[in-house]
Design a protein that fits this description.
homodimer, 341 residues, alpha/beta, Isopropylmalate Dehydrogenase, 2 domains, 11 strands
Chain lengths: 341, 341
Amino acid sequence: MSAVSGQQVSLALDANGGDHGIDVTLPAALEALSQEPELNITLVGVVDDIEDRVDFASHPRLKWVAAESVLAADAGPVAAIRKGAGSGTGWAIQMVADKAADACVSAGNTAALVALGVKRLGVLPGLRRPALMSDIPCEGGMTSVLDLGANLDVDARQLMQFAIMGVEARTLQGGPPPRVGLLNVGHEEGKGHAVVQEAHGLLRELPLNYVGFIEGHDIYAGKADVAVCDGFAGNLLLKSSEGLARMLFNELKDVFRHDFRSRCAGLLAKPALRSMLEQLDPGKHNGAPLLGLAGVVVKSHGSADATAMVHAIREAMREAQRQVPDRIKEAIQRYGAGEST
Amino acid sequence: MSAVSGQQVSLALDANGGDHGIDVTLPAALEALSQEPELNITLVGVVDDIEDRVDFASHPRLKWVAAESVLAADAGPVAAIRKGAGSGTGWAIQMVADKAADACVSAGNTAALVALGVKRLGVLPGLRRPALMSDIPCEGGMTSVLDLGANLDVDARQLMQFAIMGVEARTLQGGPPPRVGLLNVGHEEGKGHAVVQEAHGLLRELPLNYVGFIEGHDIYAGKADVAVCDGFAGNLLLKSSEGLARMLFNELKDVFRHDFRSRCAGLLAKPALRSMLEQLDPGKHNGAPLLGLAGVVVKSHGSADATAMVHAIREAMREAQRQVPDRIKEAIQRYGAGEST
């Protein structure tokens, strides 16, 4: 974790993870390397014909490490710990633990990634568990939401820790101090269950730009830069939003196939529509950092295409350059927000 | 609760509830009466100039009952119980309890409605709490989701009860036995926290058309007719979906204002687009039944316009005609799903 902005970053990329494996990870690696002159990538996985797929001699910043096994896409935490060490996912994380890489990216199973990350890298001092964060498009920008599924049951202290981690990760995007909102079923004091009530009290005491309770629609209205919730609610929120966006885009396509008049309209509007869809599709903003580990681990969507995977790789690179884990460690100590304090 | 399909239904409508009060409830009542010859409506609330607003002599199926007070929009359960009895919300529910009405509709505060409903009507035998259900548009139809905020902390037995209530309410829409899905963070066995795991076991034992775990995106893909979750997650899901839909529609409007070419496209596509937006906007499908009470109570969106309010009124009317509370009571007993069994 010695890299800073403008310096070289070496990144380990799980070659087999995700729905498309090497068919996406290799083109994404090559594209990311062409975009980022400071980047070095080590692909790690099991791909028998890797030498036929790419000429490493002509890509000096791309390396290959053969793993022993492929972790099943549905591997849970137990299987991940038992069998994951020799997989591309396990090796990529181990390279970060060994300081052989500054960051790693995997499109593998989230539960496996969390289990291996906790086991190999460890959780930062004072934290109980890592949290998964993702940026989702909103009016005027992006909202960073966490946790998205790494923690299904949380207590108030964990929600406070998520807020601190989210702020530290978000700060690397620049701008004024991020506004933090706590997701709840209403804005009013006294709303929500005991855990959010207690977290609300804790967050008000911290020197963060805390804007209080926010509701689901406030995320898309851009009322907060960092939105905090438990992983069960966050996961449903993210996946339902992706599903709704997909449905609306499909319906929109149907509208422009409806009749001759609509087909003409579709042709005329195509460039503007395409740019809107690119901007707003939550699935396009790929690369969810697993915050709270002693190293940079970024989770890619399993269905990511090469463009989306490049986005995740660049996210991991930026986090390594800004040393996000060190910042989180320092902030948790500074705010006395650790578990033992 | 003696009404059946094709018979008269008398409905109590909270005149003051919602953002617009009588400016929405009165036009909605008149429109619903013109659409539904079997419907009778009693408006209940505090409106000083009600006689100037409508000529009751020319609307024989519309009645007015003056309430004593208006319940604050932010009234919590405690305030609702203490001060709500004399409000339009409280009276409308009391009319159902007294069999003076077959159903009631309110756009007031959900927490107040739940508290007053539980206090005045009571919960059906074997149930612990009511649950709020809403239909949201999906590919090929609608998914009924519950709970949407009446129960922030639930146990497995409650989730099972939500499934049964949802099926009974959904069955009134006709068609094959509704497919029930349990919302979770993954499809695989073993995913999710202890409560959904246990509920999964309970639901598998019931003679329902249970399709197992579903994820957020499955709602919009139409993978289930009834989707069950706790009220905290359901509330975030619904409100974030509404927020996302609103943002996308706004962006779409901007696309068609972008330049001359896009404006032409917008004019051409307008009819097809409008019909799509009407169909898909989750906010348009207004009328969330509060299931599990010994009487029909339907919650309208606070921001509902008259068209949306008519939708809620017709939902309440159908539930009264199909005697949904009696069906739920019977189903909970038949499945041995009550609290005391």
